[in-house]
Amino acid sequence: MSLSEGNPVWHPSTMPYSHGDEKPVWLLRVEKFAKRISDRSHPTSHPEEETGILMLVGEMLASLENDKEAAARCADAIREYYTAFMLRSGNIDHSRLQLLDGHVLSFRQLEDHAVGWTICAVAGMAFRIGKRIRPADPNHKRLADVLIEIKKKRHTGPWDDTLGWETWNLDWFGTSLTRESDLEHLAPMERCSGLINQHALVARLVAADMFSAVVNGPAGAHKLVQEGLVPASRGWDRDRVVAARAVIASHYILLAGEQVRAASQYDEWLRWAQALAGQMAAEGDLAGAPEWDLGGVAGVAGRARKVVRRWIREQAPIERAATRAREEAERNEWIALQAARQGAEERFVAWATRNRWID
Asked: Mind telling me which InterPro entries this protein's record contains (predicted)?
């Protein structure tokens, strides 16, 4: 990814779209985000840095679909841009940049918490742009991968002269999203679609162990699957809301399956498989809602059910063996109890006979 004196050279205006061509959703979101940044007037904001990071994310999204290294290049470019920006930024007192063995004092130790702010900016872009990108779109995965790559390439020592990692910033977005996951009555289709896309992004990050907060980790994913497929009560929710929750649950199974599996139990899988079978039989507009991709409700439920049924097949022999062992233990316990009871009766009869209580 190209940089020029720490500044990205890509810009939405450089995209080759002639008049009348339909722009991709991600480009519309980048343009909207860029306008939002330029309209800010808050004195503590860093519009120059945020715009630079946004352009790097935009360049990643503009890459060819088969470009497997786009997210890794973007992560490297963000680290490089971050370092260049912070070193020439007037927001930092350069006299406070201490050196130890030739390394610049970690920016996370500066008063403006630059590392945390930068991670927060990247995460914010990923979640807001990803809100309108379907999970099947390669760019949806790239938005998660760029965060994963930044964390993967972080410096692990106490001195970090590039971009570090502070998980709490990502936790904030995941927790905020979880709090908003209760779709209100009469929720519009657009809101349902947006939450589905964002939760799919969270699922990708859960699979990469990106969250430190319990609410956003495997336990949180398990809870959303359970609530989406086996709700305690439907209440007043419209069909689209019930279906949206089921699709969110299905995406967690598909994208963070191993984490969900580890946090759940065999008997839950049996109920989930049954619930997903019901979703596959869904009829009407929601069954093939194009906004939800992957074949709509029925399509994504079918794929998730295959995953759950595989779990069941793999676990079934273990469960049967455990059941046999439990039944054997119970039978042995009963036999031991009967033997003890019979022995006690025999000892009583012998004692009573000796004492002439009985003939």
From this structure: OpdG
Residues constituting the chain:
359
Task: Tell me whether strands 3-4 and 7-8 are parallel, antiparallel or unpaired.
Answer: antiparallel
Residue for token digits 């906004």?
291
From the list 129, 314, 301, 133, the residue with the least C-alpha distance to 228 is 301
Q: Taking the mean position of all CA atoms in its chain, how far away is CA 111? A: 30
3-class state of residue 259 by DSSP? helix
Query: 24: which DSSP letter?
Result: P
Tell me what the mean pLDDT of segment 4-22 comes to. Answer: 53
Q: How high does pLDDT run on average in the chain? A: 76
Q: At what angle do helices 114-130 and 70-88 cross, to 10 degrees?
A: 140
Helix (H, G, I), strand (E, B) or coil at 3: strand
pLDDT tens, residue by residue, 212-268: 777 788 999 999 999 899 987 665 556 777 788 888 999 999 999 999 999 999 999
The mean per-residue pLDDT over the stretch 113-136 comes to: 83
Name beta bridge partners: 103. Answer: 100
109 in helix, strand or coil?
Answer: helix
Q: At what angle do helices 47-61 and 25-38 cross, to 10 degrees?
A: 170
Domain ranges of the chain: 1-89+102-174, 186-311
Helix (H) or strand (E) holding 174: helix 167-179
DSSP 285: G
pLDDT above 70 (res 209): yes
What is d(CA 276, CA 84) in angstroms, rounded to the nearest whole number?
50
